Every structure is written in structure tokens, then in C-alpha cells.
Amino acid sequence: MPPERARRVVFSVRDADPTDGAAIRAVAGPSWHAAYDDRLGAAAVDRLVDAWYAPGDLRREIADRGPFVVAERASGVIGFAQGRHVAGGDGALSRLYVHPGAWGRGVGTALLGATARRLHPAGTLRAVVMAANAVGRAFYDRHGFTLRERRVTRLEGLSFEVVVLVAPLGPLCALSPGVDRAVAADADGDRTAD
Length: 194
Description:
Layout: E1 7-15, H1 21-40, H2 42-52, H3 55-64, E2 68-73, E3 76-86, E4 90-98, H4 107-119, E5 124-130, H5 134-142, E6 146-155, E7 158-168, H6 169-173, E8 182-186
Parallel strand pairs: 4-5
Antiparallel strand pairs: 1-2, 1-8, 2-3, 3-4, 5-7, 6-7
């Protein structure tokens, strides 16, 4: 039997709309559980998602705070990113999460590039990641982020180490410039690009 041909799956990146809150939260839950359950525990992750992705708060943040973009395909939102300008003319990446079913497919890269372009002409982009988050660290390493500092923070009564990573904004602006139509091949047709 001949090998199955890969289907092309299309996703797009656009500015978030205040009505996207529920869809963003629907991505945040599985993403946070996949990334943080083993470090924080499922109950703590549930509490954090409830607190940080409350629909009213998301609506306000989308409307009022810096660039907020979503990646979507026909079935709905599959990832999101939020950035902001900080003192000194730099940018900060506040959030970048992709549904685990779409990890490794180009979605995160497209979201990073779209956010960087909306923050331009900031000099550098900063991201804070749990030191033990191997998936997140590898993603930022691939995109040229370097370690600026390590520090300990507390969430839900737990202490853990985070790393502050930085990268020059210029090269990030060149990532996935065709954000209106990023395409990836997928054998089962069920997933989209990174």
C-alpha cells in the first residue's frame, strides 16, 4: 500500500478581538497543564488558569494592553501571544501558548514573529520562562534568546526558578512574515503548524 500523502493545513495569525477570551482560555488550560502539571500540580494549574484567564480580564487586556494575537484555523483558536512595551524601549512577551495538539507545527514561531512585528522598533524582546520548562526553553533557544538572569518566584505557594531570556527584536520580526497564511503539512490533517 502506498504511503499516505500529507494534507496541507492552513492557519492564520490575526490581532485578537475582545470576543476571543473564551477561545484563548480554552487553549490556555490544556497548554498550562501540559507544561506545568508536573511542576505545580493540576489543582494549582487550574487555579492559575482561572485567575489569569478570567473572561472579563482577558477582554480588557485584549482591548487595552499592547499587541495580543491569536493563531486560528477553521476549527478555532489554537494559540495566542501577548506582548507589551517596557521601559527603555524594549519589548516583553507576556504570554505565548499553543494548544499541545499543535506543538511543533510552526504556530508558536508565527505568533512570536507577529508579536515582534507589532512591538517593533523595540530593541530587544524579553521572555520569562520556568527554568524546568524544557519545551519552552528549547523553543526560545531555537529563536536566538539568551539567558539574562535567573531568579526564584512563587506561585500558588510554591517556589521555583525562572529564567529571563532576551533576543534582539529585528531577527524575530522576520519569523513567519506571511502570518496571514502560514501552512504546514500534516499526515493526519488534524494538526496545524507549530
